[in-house]
Amino acid sequence: MKSPGLSRSVEDYLKAIYTLNERGEAAGTSHLAQALEVQPASVSGMIRRLAEDGLLEHEPYRGVRLTPLGNREALKVLRRHRIIESYLVRQLGFGWDDVHEEAERLEHAASDELVDRMAEAMGNPATDPHGAPIPTRNGKIDPTAYPRLNEVPDGTRVTVRSVSDHDPARLRYFESVNLVPGARALVKKGGIDSRRVTVLVEGGAEPLTLKARVARRVTVMEE
Q: How far is the CA of 122 from the CAs of 84, 128, 160, in angstroms?
């Protein structure tokens, strides 16, 4: 069951820190304030509280990182979120662009027992509708660090692994150009030294050009 004593705001902070670290980004005060849409002063106070509770530790010049305890609690929240997203899409017919905000609300109310039953009803999926790995009941998650689309060299063939679920408009755009989990593509021009990435998605008639900051929201597997 859900650990007692963790408020919604604490769970939000733990998940935000985990997500930033997962992307390879520093979880600094300004990054967290932007991600959680709160004032930096509020972030500083919460960081002190979470550090006192043994949920995170501060790394000079790199922001904060979760302790093993904080990481375990973050994965519990992430599991609830991603299973709820999956259930809404698979069982209730929601679009993949509609489920993030619903899951944000429901993840704090649903017990781990309910979420486990939802997962079992779907055959225990390994990934959510956006391709992100779902943590197991034991707190395990695929540790593979897949490259971002903007990090792939020119001429590389890739398969889309996952896309960020935070922006409904971007998800609708990705779907319209078939840049979805499982899609294959050829990187024509990488974004490592430029601000744009050009890819040819399998089945598409014309190359697709993305801003590097948008391409960064797509993880891929190199073929």
A: 11, 11, 23
Amino acid symbol at 208? L
Contact assessment for residue 189 and residue 197, using Cβ atoms and an 8 Å cutoff: yes
| DSSP per-residue codes, 59-91 | ETTTEEEE-HHHHHHHHHHHHHHHHHHHHHHHT
Residue 159 half-sphere exposure toward CB, CA atoms < 13 A: 6
Helical packing angle, 8-22 and 29-36, nearest 10°: 120
Tokens 């997500």 label which residue? 19
Residue-wise pLDDT tens digits, 133-192: 999 998 889 888 899 999 999 999 999 999 998 899 999 999 999 999 999 999 998 766
Prediction pTM value: 0.87
In angstroms, what CA-CA distances link 146 with 27, 59, 142, 186?
20, 24, 10, 16
- Cβ contacts of residue 88 below 8 Å, gap of 6+? 94, 98, 99, 102, 103
Report d(CA 99, CA 80) in Å as an integer.
13
Could you tell me where the beta strands, DSSP code E, fall in the chain?
56-59, 63-66, 157-163, 184-189, 196-201, 208-211, 218-222
Nearest to 32 by CA among 7, 10, 5, 4: 10
Go through 84-100 and write b for each residue having 16 or more CB atoms within 10 A of its CB, e for each that does not. bbbbbbbeeebebbebb
Give the number of other Cβ atoms within 10 Å of residue 201's Cβ. Answer: 18
Do 211 and 199 contact (CB within 8 A), yes or no?
A: no
Residue with the two structure tokens 């692994």: 161
